[in-house]
Amino acid sequence: MKPSEMNVLVVEDDDFQRGMTVNMLRSIGVASASGVANGRPALDTIRAGGAAPVHVALCDLNMPEMDGLEFLRRLAQEDHNVAVVIVSALDAKLLYSVVRMTKIYGIRLLGAMEKPILRGQLKELLDKYDHFPRVRAEPLPNHNFAPDEVLRGVRSGQFAPWFQPQVDLKTGRLVGAEALARWHHPELGVVGPYAFVPVLEQARRIDELTFLMLERAAGACRTLHEAGHPISVSVNLSLVSLDDPALADRVLQLVRREGIEPRHLMLEITETAAMTDVAQALENLARLCMNGFPLSIDDYGTGYATLQQLTRVAFSELKIDQSFVRDVSESESLRIAVESSVEMAHRLRVKSVAEGVETLQDWDAVKRVGCDAAQGYFIAAPMDFDAFLAFCAAHSAR
């Protein structure tokens, strides 16, 4: 939709700024622009709909009677298909917090601007309208699986790894993939790991699934190499599994049986696992490393590990958690957090990987701070092995 077809509502309590914004909208060719003093009349206008429904609301935050926060919440609750541009003079950190809140509500957010409003920036955000489809907040899983139910699925062949590619930020070359467990449930369809991994971990029965994923990932890695794609494949190891004294030897035997070198199978452990004081877990990690397996610290930034704790493990890769990477281009605080993580990785002479790269802006931001590789929906969503093999071929051709 072009600005010349839009009906834009300015929600601003200051009369002068409201009038100036309405005039600015008209000057860039918006079909209809009007203004109200706070969220209450704004909702009334949106509810009225009629022949000229509101397409975009420019929303201030600090307003009397109904402020912008309440307006946004009610807009989401009433499920109006209205895109939003947040406009405020508040601190950038607070403004980013509101942006995150708005996205979690499932509101169609075109962007946020600090006052004073700039004509070019406003037009640029309105031009994004067609590229920001309506997003509904995802419902939480409501099916509670029992450990025995999950393991029956494992034993009956319903589980398989899906693969999400990792790309070198400097060269654009495909360098790896993470193998992510998916349950092809006969009634519920494809079920993601958050529905079943915690269940198995809490019951301390995760090993069967772990070794199935290791076996399938190692086999996939061999097939990829034979097809001319010499990349590494990453697999998650649970802290629960690290308690087993025989774990390292079992993993080594499996990889040898599948005919690949250990250096091609990256073993990911969470930051929480890296912080452990359990001697058996540290012994397993040391033995895996001695046998040539590279180790990756996953979800970095979520476990509050100290540098001393991180140096207990001879890891080769640090994966910066997606909660820091998503929207990094919009937040100075996130940029500093990511930059510090990358700098620490480089000082420790390990590879840095940004997870959750979802937009070109995020890609450019992590590239600017010197991150080595990226993983996320901007590159590709997780996919089954046949689709991933085709992705590798297409990527190589490019």
Can you put this structure into words, describing what you see?
This protein has 398 residues and is of the alpha/beta class. It has 16 helices and 14 strands. It has helices at 15-27, 39-48, 68-77, 92-104, 119-126, 147-155, 197-202, 207-226, 247-258, 271-274, 279-290, 307-310, 322-325, 332-347, 360-368, 385-397; strands at 7-11, 32-36, 56-59, 83-88, 108-114, 159-168, 174-185, 189-191, 232-236, 265-270, 295-300, 317-320, 351-354, 373-375. The strands form 2 sheets. The chain has an 8-stranded mixed β-barrel, surrounded by 5 helices. A 5-stranded parallel β-sheet has the order 2-1-3-4-5, with helices on both faces. Residues 135-141 have low confidence and may be disordered.
Layout: helices, strands, pairs:
Layout: E1 7-11, H1 15-27, E2 32-36, H2 39-48, E3 56-59, H3 68-77, E4 83-88, H4 92-104, E5 108-114, H5 119-126, H6 147-155, E6 159-168, E7 174-185, E8 189-191, H7 197-202, H8 207-226, E9 232-236, H9 247-258, E10 265-270, H10 271-274, H11 279-290, E11 295-300, H12 307-310, E12 317-320, H13 322-325, H14 332-347, E13 351-354, H15 360-368, E14 373-375, H16 385-397
Parallel strand pairs: 1-2, 1-3, 3-4, 4-5, 7-9, 9-10, 10-11, 11-12, 12-13, 13-14
Antiparallel strand pairs: 6-7, 6-14, 7-8
